[in-house]
Design goal:
The protein has a two-stranded antiparallel sheet. It contains 27 helices and 2 strands. The longest helix is centred in the middle third of the chain and has 36 residues. Helix 11 packs antiparallel against helix 12 and helix 23 runs parallel beside helix 25. By secondary structure, it is mainly alpha-helical.
C-alpha cells in the first residue's frame, strides 16, 4: 500500500498522463486559511432606491461581521505562527506580527497595539526600535511609551532621547508620565526590574542598531525597502525597514535633533539635554502667552474706549482669577485655554526632570506658579514638600498651598506647626483679602491641634476667630435649623400684623395717623404658632470655641453675634451668662429661642438652686 513520507508527509500518485501530489496540511496552510478570512468582499450596489435604508442597515451589519471575521483571522494566524514558528516554510512570524500590529493601528486600536508590542516583540532590540518609529509616524507614540522597556532589552540611549523629544513635541502629558516611570537615568527603573549600573547592558554603551544608526546620522529611510524577515538581525548588522517607515526626521512633526549624550555612558537618557529642551519650550510658551495677553488687552482697551462710559474689562474693573473667590492672582504660566493644558504638562514634566536632577526647590516653585486648576495631580505638590522636606521653601506660601488642595494643606499646616507657626500662617492669610480662607485655617487649627493655639500670644487671633465665624456663620451653614425657624417666625408675624391692622386702616387714614411700621426683625417665636420646637440641647462649633477660649473679649463677641441676621441667639445666651446679664439671657431663651426647658436649665446653672 502507498505510504506518505517526508516532512510534511507527502504522497505522489503517478499515471502515464499525470502526477498528483498529496500532502498533509501544515502550519503555513493553516495561516493561509486564517488570513483568507481577512479578505474584504467587494461592495454590493443597491438594487433599488426604495430599499436604500434597509440596504444601509444590512451593509452596516455586514461591515461589523466582516471586521470581527478579519480580527479573528489575524488572531488565529498569529497564534498558529507563534506556536509553530520552527515549522514555518513560507511564512515568517515577524511578517504575521507586523500584519497584526498594522491592522490594529489602522483600526485606531492604539492601546491594544501597544500592549501587543510588549508581548510579541520580546527582547529583540531592532524590532522595538522599528515599532517605536512606526508608532511615532502614526501619532501613537504616547500609547507605546508605557510599554517601552528600559531593561531586557536595554535600547540605545539615543532611542530613549528620541522618545522623550518626540513626546515633548507631540504630547507633553505623556512626557511627564514617562519621566515619572523611567526615573533617574542612572538608577533602576520600574520597568527594568533592577539597578541599571548592575546589569550587563550597563557595563558598556549599548551598540546602536541599524535604525538608531540612521536616526543618529540624520539619514532617512529608503522608500520601498523590505521589512526584516525571520529572526531580527543583531545590533550592528545592516538591515532595512518595512515600506512606509520613516525616521524621526521624516515624520509629520518637526525634525528631531538627537540630544547630546551625558558624561555617564550608562545613563538611560541624556538628562541635561532633555531638561534644556523642556525648559526652552516652557519659556517659549510663557513668552507666547505674555505676547497674546498684551495684544488681547490692547484690543480690549481699544474697544472699551470706543464706547461711551465703557469699561475695558467690564463690571467694576476688578479682575478675578481662575481660582474664584480666593482672590486675584497672577500666574507665571497661564496661556489661553487651547494651550493651558499643554503648558501645564510641560511645566510638570520640567518639575519631574528637576527632581530627578536633584533640584526639588526649583521644581516646587514651578508647580506653585501654575494655576491650581491646571495641575494634573495636586497631591504631587504636597508629596514633594514632605518627601524632600521642603517646608522651609513654602513656609511663606500658605495661601498657595491652600489654593492647590485645601484638605492636604490643612493636614500639612496643622501637623507641621513647627515649620508653619500659627501666627505666621494666619498673618499670611489675612493679607489675602479673603475672610473665608483665613477662617478655614483657624478652624483647622482649633480642630486638629488646639494645644498649639491655646497660648496667650494668640489672644488677638481668638478675637478674630469669633468675629470671622459669626460673620460667615449663615453663609457657611445654610442648612442650620435656626434659619428656618427665623423665616417662618417672620412670615407669621407679618401675617398677624397685617391682619390686625386691616380693621383700623380706615380710621387711621381719617384721623391722619401713620400706621406703625412692620418690624420684620421681630421673630418672637414664643408668640407664634406652628413652629417646630427648639432643641432641648444646643451645640455648635462657635459655642464650643467660646467655651474653650479664655481670651475672647466677651463684649466684642456679643456685638459680633448680635449684628447677624438673624442674631446668633444661642451663642449670645452663653456670652450674656458669662457677663452676668442673666435677665437678658433668660428673655432671649423665652422670647427668641422659644425653649422653656433650656430657660429652666439656665436658671439652675447660674443660680445653683432649684428653679
Amino acid at each position: 500500500s502507498p505510504s506518505m513520507t517526508g516532512d510534511p508527509p507527502t504522497l505522489y500518485v503517478s499515471s502515464p498522463g499525470d502526477v498528483v501530489l498529496a500532502r498533509v496540511r501544515d502550519a503555513d496552510d493553516a495561516i493561509d486559511l486564517a488570513l483568507a478570512q481577512c479578505r474584504t468582499p467587494p461592495p454590493r450596489s443597491s438594487s433599488s432606491s426604495s430599499s436604500s435604508r434597509r440596504g444601509a442597515q444590512r451593509d452596516d451589519a455586514d461591515d461589523a461581521a466582516s471586521a470581527k471575521r478579519r480580527t479573528r483571522g489575524r488572531r488565529d494566524a498569529l497564534v498558529i505562527a507563534t506556536a509553530h514558528a520552527h515549522r514555518l516554510r513560507r511564512h515568517k512570524v515577524q511578517d504575521v506580527v507586523k500584519a497584526h500590529l498594522d491592522a490594529l493601528l489602522d483600526a485606531g486600536e492604539r492601546d491594544a497595539a501597544a500592549r501587543e508590542c510588549r508581548r510579541l516583540l520580546g527582547d529583540t532590540e531592532t524590532l522595538w526600535e522599528y515599532w517605536i518609529l512606526v508608532f511615532d509616524k502614526k501619532a501613537a507614540l504616547a500609547h507605546l511609551a508605557p510599554q517601552i522597556p528600559t531593561d531586557r532589552p536595554r535600547l540605545a540611549r539615543s532611542v530613549y532621547d528620541m522618545v522623550l523629544e518626540r513626546l515633548l513635541a507631540t504630547d507633553p502629558a505623556a512626557l511627564r508620565d514617562t519621566i515619572k516611570r523611567w526615573g533617574h537615568p542612572g538608577r533602576s527603573s520600574p520597568s527594568g526590574g533592577g539597578t541599571v549600573a548592575n546589569t550587563p547592558a550597563a557595563a558598556a554603551p549599548a551598540t546602536m542598531g541599524p535604525l538608531t544608526q540612521r536616526m543618529t546620522r540624520g539619514g532617512g529611510t529608503r522608500a520601498g525597502s523590505v521589512p526584516p524577515t525571520g529572526t531580527a538581525p543583531p545590533h550592528g548588522r545592516s538591515g532595512s525597514l518595512p515600506p512606509g517607515s520613516a525616521s524621526a526626521g521624516t515624520s509629520s512633526a518637526a525634525p528631531v535633533t538627537p540630544a547630546q549624550p551625558v558624561d555617564d555612558p550608562t545613563a538611560l537618557y541624556s538628562l541635561d539635554a532633555i531638561l534644556r529642551r523642556v525648559e526652552a519650550r516652557a519659556a517659549r510658551l510663557t513668552d507666547e502667552h505674555n505676547a497674546g495677553t498684551t495684544s488681547s488687552a490692547s484690543r480690549t482697551l481699544t474697544r472699551g474706549a470706543a464706547r461711551p462710559g465703557g469699561s475695558s474689562f467690564g463690571g467694576s474693573g476688578s479682575s478675578r482669577s481662575s481660582s474664584g473667590r480666593l482672590g486675584r492672582r497672577h500666574y507665571a504660566v497661564s496661556p489661553p485655554s487651547l494651550h493651558r493644558r499643554v503648558a501645564a504638562a510641560v511645566v510638570e514634566a520640567r518639575a519631574e526632570l528637576l527632581v530627578v536632577n536633584d533640584e526639588p526647590e526649583k521644581a516646587l516653585a514651578g508647580l506653585l506658579a501654575l494655576d491650581p486648576a491646571d495641575l494634573s495631580e495636586p497631591r504631587v505638590v504636597f508629596d514633594l514638600v514632605e518627601r524632600r522636606d521642603l517646608c522651609h521653601a513654602v513656609r511663606h506660601r500658605a495661601a498657595d498651598l491652600a489654593r492647590v488642595d485645601r484638605d492636604r494643606a490643612a493636614e500639612l499646616l496643622t501637623r507641621r506647626v513647627d515649620a508653619f507657626p500659627v501666627a505666621s500662617v494666619a498673618a499670611q492669610l489675612a493679607k489675602e483679602s479673603d475672610p473665608e480662607l483665613e477662617l478655614w485655617y483657624l478652624r483647622a487649627v482649633f480642630r486638629e491641634c488646639p494645644e498649639a493655639y491655646s497660648g496667650q500670644e494668640h489672644r488677638a487671633l481668638h478675637a478674630r476667630h469669633v468675629n470671622l465665624m459669626a460673620d460667615l456663620w449663615w453663609h457657611q451653614h445654610p442648612d442650620d435649623a435656626r434659619l428656618e425657624r427665623h423665616r417662618r417666625a417672620k412670615q407669621q408675624h407679618r401675617r398677624r400684623s397685617v391682619g390686625g391692622r386691616r380693621g383700623a386702616d380706615a380710621d387711621d387714614d381719617a384721623a391722619g395717623v401713620t400706621p406703625p411700621k412692620d418690624d420684620d426683625d421681630d421673630d418672637d417665636t414664643a408668640k407664634v404658632d406652628g413652629l417646630p420646637p427648639a432643641d432641648d440641647e444646643f451645640d455648635s462649633e462657635l459655642l464650643r470655641f467660646l467655651k474653650w477660649s479664655p481670651f475672647v473679649p466677651l463684649d466684642a463677641a456679643l456685638e459680633a453675634l448680635g449684628r447677624q441676621d438673624p442674631p446668633l441667639y444661642d451663642e449670645m445666651v452663653y456670652v450674656l451668662g458669662k457677663l452676668g446679664e442673666r435677665d437678658r439671657a433668660l428673655a432671649i431663651l423665652l422670647d427668641h429661642v422659644g425653649s422653656v426647658k433650656r430657660a429652666v436649665d439656665f436658671v439652675k446653672e447660674v443660680e445653683g438652686t432649684p428653679a
